[in-house]
Design goal:
This protein is an alpha+beta fold. The chain has helices spanning 6-22, 25-31, 48-54, 56-63; strands at residues 38-40, 43-45, 67-76, 81-89, 96-101.
Length: 106
């Protein structure tokens, strides 16, 4: 059985979210595995480069002044995944938007 350090996985998700909110693209890139799968609002970014090219900058813009609250966090040992779901409210889009992100490096 694979021993899992759940807290390390949660820490990566937290660091990823904080880097996005701070506009720290370098840290976002370092925390994401090259084969990351990011699920957001019914769509998917299927690797790190796709996410960085398509959504990262707009996510940072949305989150820079956002107030967010965690809805849930889950980890899976066998598949090496970690995810979180949150609601965020930003001055850009005055609506709450759910999201899920799955950095693959615990």
């Amino acid at each position: 059985m694979l021993k899992v350090d759940v807290q390390s996985a949660v820490d990566v998700v937290d660091r990823f979210s904080a880097a996005l909110q701070a506009g720290d693209l370098k840290t976002v890139e370092l925390l994401l595995d090259a084969g990351v799968l990011i699920l957001e609002s019914g769509g998917a970014e299927r690797n790190r480069q796709e996410y960085l090219a398509h959504h990262a900058v707009s996510d940072m813009e949305f989150l820079k002044d956002a107030v967010s609250s965690s809805c849930s966090e889950r980890q899976g040992a066998a598949a090496r995944w970690s995810g979180s779901a949150a609601r965020a409210r930003s001055t850009i889009a005055r609506t709450a938007m759910p999201s899920a992100c799955c950095p693959r490096r615990p």
